[in-house]
Structures
1.
Amino acid sequence: MIAALGSPACGIAAKAATATIPIVFVTGSDPVGMGLVDSLNRPTGNATGIYMLTSSLEPKRVELMREAVPNAQTIGVIVDPDSPDTVQQMKELTSAASALGRQLKIISASSGSDVEAGFATMAAQGVGAVVVASAPIYFAQRDKFVTAAARYGIPTVYFVRDFADEGGLMSYGTSLPDANRQAGLYTGRILKGDKVADLPVQQSVKVELVINLKTAKSLGLSIPLPLLGRADAVIE
């Protein structure tokens, strides 16, 4: 069998390579829309796996930035222009910002140089906080995001914990270890004889908020106690 963990491209490549070998994927993009399965409840083909929450969490990240940086009237958003989720993400983010009375500054980034230039632009335009939208390509560039956010002194929230662990201010998103654990359980069941078609795609719903207090201090930012109290982990 094949365990396709990582970017959506891993699952797509595995699916293109075989129609018979069982595949277990982990993805943050819609597996039906990508053609990995016919439906979430009845995969029917040779693939099943874990569907992580992504776009639906974008509004919460805007709320977290509003709470952490209440004076930020303009919130920057960095999106991957090539991601199939970008349109839905922008709808969610725009609606959330409007409800909170905040303006959005949209920056497209698909490379490390785009990230640096994006933060430079937002700093020049007085953006008070940044939301990095979920995108698989950003995971490998997390050091560039964290470095640029620190260089320009802009509080930034990310979509997985790894960013906060590496020095990002805050992260709010699905737990990757939990999603991979669920994929491992499915892998074990298939190896023991379960049929892929009998295993519906599961949604990974364990979400965690991580706050890096060292980074907050370096930004001169005081995180409100109610927000700290809701954090699943605080890096000191």
2.
Amino acid sequence: MNKIDEQFHNLKVKGEKALIPFFTAGFPSASKTVEMVRMAEKSGADLVELGIPFSDPIADGPLIQYTSFKAIEAGMNTDRVFGICGDLQKTVSIPYLLMTYYNPVYRYGLQKFAARCGNMGVSGIIVPDLPYEESSYLKTALRDYDVKLISFMTPFTSEERAEKILKTAEGFIYFITIAGVTGPRGSFAEELTNKIDMTRKITDIPIAAGFGVSGVQQINLIKTHVDGIIIGSFFAQKIIEGKTDRLWDIIRRFKKALK
């Protein structure tokens, strides 16, 4: 069983929701990234999303764009991200996923990228600029290594399109909470929870909400509607400010809120 499926199953049995922090691989450094993932696991994180730094991160807001730029400036690339994954494979037990854009995957080579993911213990891939209609090639390559390609939905996904996506969805649904890029938000539109609830009625696949979640208030607004919460820009801000040591208390507080 893929580790994502196993983790969501175990959480469901315990009546818990998944806390999924996002870190940009290589920011502030490769060794610090490995340390942060280890500490996140110890503090209660259930899965971790690692961003491969990219020069044109169209789905990311200013905070994650900055961390991506600084990581690239320091020499981080796809091969070095896989090196980080190799270190994690030896020291953490929670699933870790890679968030990337399609250009780096295509340039790397789909089969080569999929093989590296499988060999380095990566459980899933998130590619926000890869349309559902064009995802089958990468999904097929990843399937040989039991690596899940995560599908996206939004409050604006049509019913017809949602049905197509859900037929082949695997791992979990990444439900984008807002229209726009990543970054903290104060509230969510009412149609968000309505759309999530409607989706849950037609699929058993777990749903994790991301984009705009930045604190306990937002967690409380949507936690009863989803199976997991993804938080990225909020953590990026703390790391940029040099407040990494505070992350572990925050993760513990967020995990407590999810219970």
3.
Amino acid sequence: MIEIKNLEFAYPGGKPVLEGITLEVPGGALLCLAGINGSGKSSLLSLLAGLLSPSKGNIRVGTDESPGQEKSLRRTCGLLLQDVDLQILGATVEEDLLLGIDPKDKNVRTKALDIARNFELDALLNRPVQTLSWGQKKKLCLAATLAQAPKVLLLDEPLSGLDYPGILEMRSILAENRIQGLTQVIAAHDLEPVADLADLLAVLHQGQITLFGPPKDVLGKVKEFGVRPPCAWSKDKGIMPWE
């Protein structure tokens, strides 16, 4: 589903923030992209989402390629930003949820409202967005993204800023997406609440992929690159469900 070959990216006038990135993610898999702050995780998600173009190399998601088909990539991949306040554009929950939907398409509108109900947002549809909690804002942005029916879901630190019930709820959503066969890429610097959900784990360090593979094959080496392994792993209990 996702194929990246020899990817390099630099912001205008700057040094490369990503170099030599090569990896493949099969359809329906959940890839956890780990690394310390500044390692290039958000830049890689933006490239996958078609918001940026590679300086060298290429990205293929399904039949869409970058450079060249960034507009198609933006339809294929849905991105949940870490700072959801940058993603909310509507004045009310309903307005934001339906912003990217053709108002004449009743089927898509119904699907979007169904997602809102599943996320327990249906009672908040008329609420001004500024009155929502951080967790409610994250769910709104995720619901609006899923309403566009992306083939790939990209999530930048989706658990940051959430309380314990919020983390459990977000994990449940990610797990259900995985069951439904949606390809997902999660950027995270804390592996504790996500390692058990991942099919693949990639560690970015100074703009390069230093580790890549199933979590059981990678977790033993993540400390070398500033990433803390889950407590259960550190206590020789393997990868345990987080709860």
4.
Amino acid sequence: MSIIERALKRLQADGSAPQVRRVFGRVEEGATQTATGRKISIDQEALRAAGLLAPRQQEQEIGSQYRQIKRPLITAAMGKGREPVRNGRLIMVASALPGEGKTFTAINLTFSMAMEKDLRVVLVDADVAKPQISKMFGVNAERGLLDAVTNPAVDLERLILPTDVPNLFMLPAGTQSDRATELLASERMVDAMNRLLERDGDRIFVFDSPPLLLTTEAPALAAVAGQVVVVVRAGYTEHHVLLDALNRLPESCSPSLVLNQSTLKSTGYYYYGYGMPAEADSAATSGGT
């Protein structure tokens, strides 16, 4: 039995084949301070209640851990004190399989980065087959990434929606396509990302990616991203599964690892010890997250 088959059986057996159970945002019209007159209103308290943001009593501790995670990524992206990584402002957050906390990590990483005074951060729903970020924040009916890559005449910049969180923006997945892998691996995708990077040098994009072992879209996206963060769930992700996932990445890629749901204290950068409750994990992910 293959790794993928075993993973799917495990998800079915423990009842954790996740599904989005709540919507935590909505698009508001008439936002006069935005270019499009629209913005996403985010219910942060509902996110906390669902375990998708740090609870108030752990906010300081979790915030400190995410500062450790984000700092090297920002340094590599912006080149502060060093040469920036090529396309380093395109950060892909991935995992080997569903249920490892990938979407949870992407959300918390963008919220933490948005606290920087001189950055703007765009959370991109790149899990185009199962767009959970788009569903969570009420933008699954909006045009997004795939629409612009499908039709170069579509201005991708105008599809990025501001939120009511300062410096935080979102780009929905867009209209689903059975050619998603080819589109993400195309020169159109490269051109679209280059235009976004050129438009604003103080902007970072965090891509919530599909699982590396269950889709062909994730390796295609990794070929475009300048930095890749792979989330590993403590006590869940088997060593050979992780190695197989890392082998799906381009040879030029040097991924960073985040250990999620660990009970051990942090030993350095890229290790995160906060664990979501099972229901929250289901809310954060789907069969392809």
